[in-house]
Amino acid sequence: MLSTGIISRPVYPGLAADLKARHNLFIIEGEGAAAVLDLAAKTPAGFFERSTLLYCPAGSAGKDYEKQLEGLKPKALWTFPTPATVMFRLKGVLQTATMGTRLYITGTEPFIGLALKEALEAGIDHKSLITEHRGSAKRRVQCVHCKGFTENVVTNPVTCNHCGLNLLVRDHYSRRLGAFQGVCIDAEVPGEAPAPEEIFR
Amino acid sequence: MTGEAEFRVRVAETETVAEGIRRLRLVPLGRSALPLFSGGAHVVLTMQDDGRVLRNPYSLMGSPFDASSYQISVLRTADSRGGSIYVHNKLRDGSELSISAPVNLFPIDRRARRHLLIAGGIGVTPFMAMMEQLEREELPFELHYCMRSKTGGAYWSWLRDIYGRRVNTYFDDLQQKLPLRRLVENQPLGTHLYVCGPSGMIDWVLNEARDAGWPEENLHFERFSAPPAGAPFTVELAKSRCTLNVEPTQSILEAIEAAGLVAPCLCRGGACGQCESGIVSCDGTIEHNDHFLTDAEKASGGKIMICVSRLKNAGGRIVLDL
Could you tell me the domains of chain B? Predict the structure, then answer.
């Protein structure tokens, strides 16, 4: 049902340290903290002294990752209550950053999409971003009909929060919007749609 | 250029702009305007020299918004295979020749927040067209331009007059050195770097930028290699069923064209990848002179860029899937 083989479907190859970067900027959500800790086990000494961490605990608030990230002794660790507040700070940091700064983004896909969007607006090519997907497979979906965004989508099909159409969530992804495209699944016979399945767990 | 338009042009103006550098203005013949181009584009000049055909790429340095003429600048090179000598000695006001449609392998990246242009010597020419475009589009840029001397460098004074402090000049004979390290370490995020000049300088600039943590996506360069001369050898075209001799000062591509055949090509300088050809078999060692194939591809021996690469051994034989 996902219509696979769509090449705009992003891939997240996983975190890898850029040892030539003079400054590393990590944008982390929830379980993404575990990806950073895994990376720390493989990086040479001094790497985190050149690193700034922007962290939103989100669904992993109970897991005490913050203390472990602090244990990496980064140049700075800032913790934020929501993804939106992370993005606000990120925008400010990118405005004054210089070339030689490498961005790492890790967490759920909607979070990676939001951070990636900020990076693109700052003139960074998406291919130079280092990303790793951790945590829920929930999606951010744009309804192609009313253009409204539905957040935290875990089922397919899903009902558009804005116009109420039943949407097939496609793998068709927009980096500019940071969202998958949802297309009406029962246009011929309204109401005749397959039952929603929880596939983006 | 294969399968693409060629235009007849007339040399309308020639000027010596610096030691060994000649500027030409080319106007269209039999049509009112030439195609518009974008900053960084080049054309291939076809020159008929005593029965020998020479084709060389030159960057367009005039305004991309002016379709009434093209301008190029040509440096006379000592190891020239004849192209630059021909432009300097044989072309006169009123000479007629053929040029290809413009092709841009060195375009501006419009996603950049800032454009850092680094030129060495005659490598300034694509940047002159780029700067016209950047200025019109109000995009932030600066040029760093290295030359041997004030008399050996072209256009620097004129560029400084137009663009003011955005043009920085460095003269070797005055011991002025491009502060490259400081430059690449202090650019705002989202800056794109463009470099054009001698091969050694391009390597230096790219390596310094990489060492300062610049990602490949933000680095742009253009180097045209003239096909190096070498030993004579034999090339067999499997599909065309013919065997040709490649002379010491000829490239495989030129040998094919001299035989009246057509092979795919675009930049003629080992940069664009258009002339990539499969190797059926090879009796000899390949000298890869291009900047297109990866080291792994070169090592595997399956492909060759026929515009600049050749066999090392005299009398060697290579069979191509052409």
Answer: 6-104 (2.40.30.10), 114-222 (3.40.50.80), 233-320 (3.10.20.30)
Nearest to A110 by CA among A58, A54, A38: A58
Q: Which residue type is seen at B314?
A: A
The mean pLDDT of B84-94, rounded to a whole number, is: 92
The architecture in CATH of the region A23-133 reads 3-Layer(aba) Sandwich (3.40)
Chain B residue nearest residue A118, CA to CA: B190
Domain ranges of chain A: 23-133, 139-198
Residue A166: which of A179, A153, A177, A176 has the closest Cα?
A: A153
State ipTM: 0.87
Return the sign of the alpha-carbon dihedral for residues B294, B298, B301, B302: positive
Residue from B115, B139, B189 whose CB has the most chain A CBs within 10 Å, to mutate:
B189
- Contact yes or no for B215 and A125 at CB 8 A: yes
Give pLDDT, residue B320: 94
Mean pLDDT for B263-279 is 89
Note whether A120 contacts B113, CB cutoff 8 Å. no
Mean pLDDT score of chain B: 92
pLDDT at B2 over 50: no
Residues of A with CB under 8 A from a CB of B: 18, 20-23, 94, 97-102, 120, 122-125, 127-128
Token couple for B208: 């310094």
pLDDT at B1: 41
